[in-house]
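Supplementary notes for students who missed Thursday's class. We covered one full example, reproduced here. Read the sequence, then the structure, then the short commentary at the end.
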Amino acid sequence: MGSNDYRFCYTPIVAVTACLLTAGSLYLNPSKNPPAAELGTVNPAVSTELASSGIMVGPVLPGRPGHLTADQEIKLQELWTATLQVFGVQTLDRPDDAEDQSPGSSTAAPDKKSKKKKHSMFRRDDGASADPNDKYGQSKDFQQVLATQDPEKLRTAFWSMVKHDHPDGLLLRFLRARKWDVHNALVMMIATMNWRLKDIHVDDDIMLKGEGQALLDSSSSNAAVKKEGNDFLAQLRLGKSFLHGTDREGRPMCFVRVRLHKQGEQSETSLERYTVYTIETARLLLAPQVDTAAIVFDMTGFSLANMDYAPVKFMIKCFEANYPESLGVVLVHKSPWIFQSIWNIIKGWLDPVVASKVHFTKNLEELERFVEKSHIIKELGGDDPWEYHYVEPKTNENEKMSDKSTLQRLVDERENVVKEYERTTQEWITKPQNRTALQQKRNDLAERLRAGYWQLDPYARARSLYDRTGMIREGGLIQYYGEPQTANAPKPLIASPQNGPHPVEPRADDVD
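Structure (token representation):
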């Protein structure tokens, strides 16, 4: 499959944590009883239904769609303006009276004066204006990308990363990570798109080919290809890490069984590929109400033979540079005393914000502060009887990916919605008098993108373990708990705040 075949989603699909929604008066005065179609808030009826299913949904945190201050909304508009310029999207003429309404987001006709102003968005002098948090050299990457990369490819990578998220949420992740500095957020985001597109090939390789291709590669006559396929699958078969369940905040959990890693057993390429594959799969479980994940490092049986600094550094870089604001909490469970000196080294590599999310738990009681006992797997002493078992890829499980005509139709439909979203976003920025109505239209379009992604998903993403076992279901429903569905006795789905169900329609007496 050539990458040109899937112009918009996904080069050919899109992430991840990584993500969200809303503006105008909705940003400043979220309704007590928001309409069912409104994204970015948790409908009280939905919260009740989810709680009855054993899934907790906390309040939407500040700096998210629907929960922005006036200044934060302006920053979001400025970042959208700069982003669309980088993507080469044709700008709308900006009315004179809008200049003071949304500073820094000018999209006026390109006279000499405005050209100079636009260029200043993308260039900064070295020294005091440099981003002190740019420890991965993204400013240099950014300038190189602007000089060499096709804007349309960056645009494709962005909309591929959006997946089922509200586009505002993705931009807000980068803004929060860079403390609302628009330029630094833009640098970080564009560098991330280039990383996905050119360095790691997230959507046109890792997620497109998935486990099925790894199984084919493991039988290849090419020794190098065969090794990479076997190394990737070995980590899945071992259960070195896996996704299952939610913590007390409703965040999806990733368990890492550190004792199962031995330095040198798998190639560096396969380790990195497996790491990105796991993160991207976890992003499918996120949603506006639950936009971060929890990682539980099970240190039971840890020894120095399990310590491998290279993959640790890669994981840190992923979360700090390419999946900002995606970690909710990191739990290091039952670490032995020999890990203390190792932790002191690792902590020095972490951004202070990330380091503050790391907590050590010594026993079941301490773990229960973060995860309900009913959601703690039996392996760690909890009441959840679930056990990890890898299910091999099935023959023809990706047969929909061969249906090129349906794929192209869905990609074209998504592209049309994307273009409409871009136009409406420009109007939202340049027409403050219509901002509330335009924001609602943007939310409606974001919902169309969300629904459209899940229609496209089976044609653009290879099936994973979590599709085969029924955790990720058709239409984006997520089932963490309960027996898997069987052909003869389908089990009821457990509602998930991640992607379903759709908001409950408000009763007449719920509406002010």
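Commentary. The beta strands are 241-246, 252-257, 293-298, 327-333, 358-361. The first strand starts at residue 241 and ends at 246. If anything here is unclear, bring it to office hours.
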